[in-house]
Automatic annotation (TrEMBL):
The lineage of its organism: Bacteria, Pseudomonadati, Pseudomonadota, Alphaproteobacteria, Acetobacterales. CDD domains: Trans_IPPS_HT (cd00685). SUPFAM superfamilies: Terpenoid synthases (SSF48576). It comes from Acidiphilium acidophilum (Thiobacillus acidophilus). GO terms for cellular component: cytoplasm. PANTHER family: FARNESYL DIPHOSPHATE SYNTHASE. It is an enzyme of class 2 (transferase). Keywords: Isoprene biosynthesis, Magnesium, Metal-binding, Transferase. This is Farnesyl diphosphate synthase. Gene3D superfamilies: Farnesyl Diphosphate Synthase (1.10.600.10). InterPro entries: Isoprenoid_synthase_dom_sf (IPR008949), Polyprenyl_synt (IPR000092), Polyprenyl_synt_CS (IPR033749), Prenyl_diphosphate_synthase (IPR053378). GO terms for molecular function: (2E,6E)-farnesyl diphosphate synthase activity; metal ion binding.
């Protein structure tokens, strides 16, 4: 398949996955009639109707490679999008990055209020784990437990939250490339890696297959974050759907700040190509994942 055909197929795959995830989120987050309706409205505001759904797409596409039932894959994809949305809500709060714009619209705490935003983030996080634990997600309780354990590891103190802490305490400091790599691997990379692995967990993939998928997700996540840093430096709020130039304004150490844009772009491209190498044993079944790696470093938002 040519690169152009792969790009077209990827666009179609991303759009299809996004529509499927949106439908699943709608079903999993019904608005109650009681006084807590405002909370659920804020949850839905933050998680629905926006974003690339790359993490959810990774779940669905890797699950497809292992012949997983699409309904099961969609539930796990929706859960990881809930977890991701919770992190964005909290990341935008005044106590964190203090950002008023997310996905081209007011951040959750601006559309509602800070207290509601905090609670909406908390509720999305717990709902994500609840969905994974429900019997409809997989008939095998051991698989469900493995999904819960893997997501907890990717999002907790040794994953996303730990990376956020390093990011906060490092503001205004000069960091070495290895420390920046670790920060970004925890804050962004672990959840992307989990998203790739989740499909393999659902499909009861063999240990070697799991290893290759995890390695792909790890390098994809690293390439994605460097590309994000470049976009933050070069993009605008209109194209990004969020405030541009935040990293430099807040004194954050990124690969762009220590390597410059050109070298950082080369590093992202190297990581994307390396990610694709891990997919060789999967043959043509992994074409969309290869296309995703290329898209990750060439995207404009």
């Amino acid at each position: 398949m040519s690169e152009v055909m792969q790009a077209v197929a990827l666009r179609s795959g991303l759009e299809g996955a996004a529509a499927l995830i949106e439908t699943e989120l709608d079903a999993l987050l019904p608005v109650p009639e009681g006084e807590e309706y405002r909370l659920v409205e804020a949850m839905r505001y933050a998680v629905m109707g926006g974003g690339k759904r790359m993490r959810g797409f990774l779940v669905i596409e890797t699950a497809r490679m292992f012949s997983v039932n699409i309904t099961c894959a969609a539930r796990v994809a929706a859960s990881v999008e809930m977890l991701h949305a919770y992190s964005l809500i909290h990341d935008d709060l005044p106590a964190m990055d203090d950002d008023d714009l997310r996905r081209g619209k007011p951040s959750c705490h601006k559309a509602y209020d800070e207290a509601t935003a905090i609670l909406a983030g908390d509720a999305l996080q717990t709902r994500a784990f609840e969905v994974l634990a429900e019997a409809d997600t997989h008939s095998d309780a051991e698989v469900r437990c493995e999904l819960v354990l893997a997501l907890a590891g990717a999002s907790g103190p040794r994953g996303m939250v730990g990376g956020q802490m390093i990011d906060i305490v490092s503001e205004g400091k000069e960091l070495s490339p290895p420390l920046i790599t670790r920060l970004q691997a925890l804050k962004t990379g672990r959840l992307i890696q989990y998203s790739a692995e989740a499909g393999a967990i659902l499909g009861r993939a063999s240990a070697p297959q799991r290893h290759f998928i995890a390695a792909y997700g790890r390098d994809l996540g690293a390439a994605f974050q460097i590309a994000d840093d470049i976009l933050d430096a070069e993009g605008t709020a209109e194209t990004l759907g969020k405030t541009a130039g935040k990293d430099a304004a807040q004194g954050k150490a990124t690969m762009v700040s220590v390597m410059g844009i050109d070298r950082a772009r080369m590093q992202a491209e190297h990581l994307a190509k390396q990610a694709s190498i891990y997919l060789e044993s999967f043959g043509e079944k992994a074409n969309l994942l290869r296309a995703l790696a290329a898209y990750t470093v060439n995207r404009r938002n």
